[in-house]
Design brief:
The structure holds three protein chains of three kinds. In chain A, strands 1-2 form a two-stranded antiparallel ribbon. The two termini of chain A are 36 Å apart. Chain A is globular. In chain A, 74% of the residues lie in helices and 3% in strands. By secondary structure, chain A is an all-alpha fold. Chain B has two domains: 236 residues, D-Maltodextrin-Binding Protein, domain 2; 193 residues, 3-Layer(aba) Sandwich (D-Maltodextrin-Binding Protein, domain 2), CATH 3.40.190.10. Chain B contains 19 helices and 13 strands. The chains are: A mainly alpha, B alpha/beta, C mainly alpha. Chain C: Pfam families: BPD_transp_1. Chain C: Belongs to the binding-protein-dependent transport system permease family. Chain C: It is found in: Cell membrane.
Amino acid sequence: MNSRSRYVWAYIMIAPTLLGTVLFWSWPAFYSIYLSFLKSENFGMVNHWVGLANYEKLFKDKEFWKNLGNTLYYMVLFVPLTLVFSTFFAVLLNAKIRGLSAYRVIFFLPQVTMPAAAAMVWVVLFARDYGFINYLLGTHVAWISDTRFAMFALVIVGVWGAIGLNMLLILAGLQGIPKALYEAASIDGAVRFRKFRYITLPLLTPTLFFTTIVLMIGATQVFDSIYLLIGKTNVALPEVRSLVYAYYQNSFVYYDQNYGAAIVDMLLVINLILTGLQFAFQKKWVTYD
Amino acid sequence: MAFRKKAWLSGVGMTVAAALALTGCGSNDSNGGNASSTTNNAAGGNAASASKENVTLTYTIWDQLQQPAMEAIGKEFTAENPNIKVKVEVIPWNDYWTKMSAAAPAGTLPDVFWMHSGQFVKYASGKFLEPITDKVQAGEINMDDYAANLGSIYQLDGQNYAIPKDFDTIGLAYNKELFDQAGVPYPDDTWDYAKLAEAAKQLSQPDKGIYGFAAKMDTQGGYWNDMLANGGSIISADGTKSGYDDPASIEALQARYQMILDKASPSHQQMTDTDSTEMFKSGKIAMIFEGDWRTTDIDGSDIIKGKWNWAPLPKGKAKRGDIINGLGNVMSASGKHKDEAWQFLKFLGSKRAAEITAQMGAAIPAFKDTQAAWVQSKPQLNLQVFIDQAADATPYPAGTKAYPVWFPKESEIMAQAWGGKISIEEGAKQVAAMMNQAIADNK
Amino acid sequence: MENRRQAVERNYNWIIHVVLIAASVVMIIPFGWMILTSFKTVTEATQIPVKIFPSHPDFGSYAKAFEKTDFKHYYLNTAFTALMKTVFPVLFSSMAAYAFARIRFPGRTLLFFVIISVMMVPNPVFYTPQYLLMSKWGLVNSVTALWICALVSPFATFMLRQFFLGISKELEEAAILDGCNPFQTFRYIMLPLVKSALVAIVIIQLLWSWNELQWPLIINSSPDKLTLSSGLATLVSMFSTNYPILMAGALMAVIPMIILFFIFQKKFIEGVAFSAHKG
């Protein structure tokens, strides 16, 4: 078969994906940037060019900086906690214990649970007067409607949902470490923690790094749990409102799609930076594969 | 336009009352409208035979409590127009306007749907609603059939867009059992706000989780009434300036908030965890402001059924500040079956539809002479207070393009104040600034 | 000495089990509370002090959630959307992935970059423009709008290409010598070789689609056009803090996926772990 007809086959085979991607994903990505330079009226039926006005408003808007700070704060709490717990349980599960698959299933259950549904039950668990969490802890804290605690409540829900998957990824990384290394160390009489510190952790770094980036990207897009856990009239909303939540509010509740586009384009910038970091370091660690 | 607005703002409350008085709310004459509904039906039947195509209309509402009544109306309409079926859809109030604003520019608004006075100008001026002026002029529908000026709420630049559906006012619901236990006499029309606060304290047993009053953070069913009663305002009569920073408004807001500080009301946090009306329904609240539309819902609670009643709102320094609002039925300008939609819209405005609404206790119908049937739908409750209060009620602060912008933001700011994050005065001033900005941006 | 070490190990195992069981309980509490609350009355659910077990468990809340909202349509729409978002991306992506992995053609690198570049863009960036597109096509508030933008998947294309790259070329060359055209080679030789990756993609697409909230929330409004997750948001708006009804709804929404998970747990865990290697 000549190469020209192979070309034709290739183009036919990529056509649906390519056209679909351009129409449904690439074009909207650029259009979102274009939208941020417009001001629309009458539910978006009339548009006019306003240049950087939306961004000017954005950078002057204290609420935007607060929301950006909230998003980053959530990330800073959520990512390390998820990593620590996931690594901890992965190391425990790596100890060749019985019932591994049962634990795996249980830890994975939150991952297959619809975030909307999970958020709804956490509302009940977190309630001040009749919530199960306060009942267990003997505390009397308004977890989701106290400005000091709402962010932690959100992080707890996030970590609960994320441990299962990340634990598995790290477990896979652990199982990829040659046993011979540990045996050599045992002969030297290295204790468990030191084994972990000097053998496991360095060899696990690529997995952990990769996991961190994925978690960070996910954390910047937190929406479902805020939408359903922290209601619209909750005093703590400004303390936890993320960029995506602000985007949703501005675009679809306050009827300002253009300002919403400017907010979400900032999220794009953050994600590009994170992805750039990932590429840069992935090259560095390519020798581990 | 500003002039027209001012006119109805000042006029509608009084005229509703006058009309109600004239048409005799106390009478039992709920069958009086048969003649007019038959003519309506005949007209409907003729139009239907002209176009025999089978059509299903979507009728979207926001109150699931009224769904059975609206479906009953739909069924009766279909019985007379067999080729037109009606599907009643409920989108809860909290999501309703978000969803409608997404559907409007996409041309996917429902055929017929409920309109609120606050949102009306935005949708009418955007040309998303079908004007019905020519039908009114042709006499297909008579705007004089509806209690006073309710029809005029939905006029813009000389065009009519809606047929009045119902009107609503706010009342004071109270738990008789809790009053009896505390030995406090039931609230009546002599009560003022001082008496309310005093009784609330007497009725409260915070250690048992029982509170005298729910000082909830709510607008129409909450502090708007307080602000008006105290001589303040929500928005200036010409709709150009917020009334939140009026000292009288701030004082009223502070008085309400004080009840939380006095432990005469649950805290905002508690009312975030459990909706205050739900608390009332489970017998934990002695008094609460609510709209007449919650009657069926509250009475459906086994815990307080038979142990509660309605009273008028307390009097304030200036007056009894009750908000009256009228809902309208409108049709989409981009609907596929406008002829059929008009037939249904007309039926919704008929006396028969009003009677179904009234008898099922769904809402106070706008059609003259049908309110009495609503009052009698639950004879054990003093529903008459809602009709009586319409006399000195203030219309819902609507009629501007800015309302849909400031309204959702208002609750966010006030939540900061109610949650104790900022002072009430600070909150009110922030709302005022935000509203004035929204008014300037949406001229 | 060997014996002593084993004994120490066993000791440690005991502690490990205690820790893991405690953690498992914490992981399961929300499910337990969801079930318990759904069988309580509103008063019991908000009782002080906390009442753990309902005194007269019944299915009243389930009946009410089912009656007041359109759960039948939520299920149908969610299942149908998940089906569309699984079948088409797998079909289109595997074709494209094969072509990008195995056929040298002008523009290959550029076109591949065009496709995978959108993976760097967070989903919310697409929503408003996609909404405007749906609006233009008159698809706002339709079941079609739930899945049409996800007919193709850059992510699946990227993942499957990696898999095709890892397959030896010999089989393929034999097929070409036999006179198979590239599509036939793909369909009969290569596709069966990446079956495990396809299963993983099917599971991920299914799970993502089932759980997605924001897009269905934005694009659809009629009760009979909602999915389970956006339907739950409606339930919350409707019943605010009537927790038994909310929990009944939440449980009804998560049960199908949890049952699937128990049946295919190994495939699920592999599939989702695989998805995390996105990018």
